[in-house]
Amino acid sequence: MAVYTKHPVAEPPAPPARATTGRLMVRAYSVLCLFAVFGHTAVYNLVGPVGAVVVLAVLTLGALGIWIPAVVMNRPTRFRWRRLPWAALGYGALALVSVLWSRWPGATLLTWTLVAAITVTALMIATMLTWQEIVRALSTTFKVILGLSLLIELWVALVVRHPILPNFATVPPGRIDPVSYWVRGNLFNGGRIQGVVGNAHELAMMCLFAVLVFAVLYAARVRRRGMLIAWAVLAAVLLFKGASTTVYLGIVVLLVVLVAALIARAATGPGTRRAVYIAFAAVVVCGAAGGILMRDRVLALFGKGSDLTGRVEIWQAVWQRAITRPVFGNGFSSPWVPWDPAFDGWILNHGITVFHAHDMWLDVFLQLGVVGVMVMAVAWLALLWRSWFFAVDRPRWDLDDKRPYSALSLLPLLLTVALLFEGIAESAPIMLWGWMLLILLSFKMKSVPLIGVGVSERTPLIEHGVRTRQAP
């Protein structure tokens, strides 16, 4: 006979830590912050410069409000200060100090504040979320960007039926250059589309990131894989309509790196992996040499001239100014502030002041000289080194060396390679979402080198004062 009792033998079961309301709110807030950074131009075009500053300031304060109490109050999972991305933070410190010799001190302070805000947000996300949650947050962010891009392109093409300007400004047709438009309405013709981010190349990069995230989630056998395929198809279509040569070439590079990583995973011993590295190095050298020798033919395939769409002239102008102060540079400003007298009208593209050097290394050399280039190189090479072994080394924390690889461990490597290749023709890796990924991935891989293993993966920092002991 069953016996019922109200005696409190045990506490009632509690929901898993990652399903609590607070946990869900942190994940949602992280997605909001990621969208504000990856879709920064969309926010700028919608609410204007002042509104964009207000949005970023409010989100940064919120990130601080979440991050600081979690770090200070949660003693069982102490914050790992030694694991911070010190090379990248050193570059940020050098950028702030450069105000002492900057030719544009106002721009230095303004853009450094932007970098500091993104740094805080990236550290908060890396601290509060597990690896799986970070990948899912990125997935949700890119889904929002893709969905909004499709909707705004459909709206402009079918309803408005004429290009729209940022902030929905009204200007008579023919009075401005088409490059100034937010959306041109080219979804159903042969023209390039800009999506909600307002730039064809940036939209293509968001689509590339989205495909990478969706692919690793699909390989990880998450739920609703059919929807992931649908989102990946949408990303591929928008990427094709964005028609970015840099992204097309980057896809080839990513495929080579992916194949090399998978072969390295399959290597059975040090000798085999060494042979893989030698072969991969030979492929990289031959590919780079072939690309340099046949660059005109390759560019012609994509309808580009040998001047790389005006980039050569931009690089020459930047170099001439950069060599005047080669050691510590002319002062930090990422991006260049177009209304500052030092940049206003300096380099023009379609009558609009250019706001970066279209090459991350040349941009760093202009701003912080050889010293800045060295610090930035250390930060990115450290991230590349760590992401490679994060992807190819079998997960191991005890004597068991037969555990399966996680598909998610490939994502940091692929994102890092995509950003480094992007840095050849753009300065995005040192600004906004490029800087966000540098800080986020560097800190997360240093503090949690194994997916799903470690205190921060098992005991979310949001659950203050609660300690759980679980087997890895």
How would you summarize what this structure contains?
This protein has 472 residues and is mostly helical.
What does it look like?
The chain is mainly alpha-helical. The chain is 61% helix and 1% strand. The protein is built from 15 helices and two strands. The protein has helices spanning 21-38, 40-73, 86-97, 105-128, 131-160, 200-219, 225-242, 245-266, 270-293, 295-301, 311-322, 360-392, 411-425, 432-447, 455-458, and strands at 348-349, 352-353. The protein has a two-stranded antiparallel sheet with strand order 1-2. A hairpin with a 2-residue loop joins strand 1 (348-349) and strand 2 (352-353). The protein is globular and about 70 Å long. The protein starts with 20 loop residues before the first helix and ends in a 14-residue tail after the last helix.
What is this structure's SSE topology?
Layout: H1 21-38, H2 40-73, H3 86-97, H4 105-128, H5 131-160, H6 200-219, H7 225-242, H8 245-266, H9 270-293, H10 295-301, H11 311-322, E1 348-349, E2 352-353, H12 360-392, H13 411-425, H14 432-447, H15 455-458
Antiparallel strand pairs: 1-2
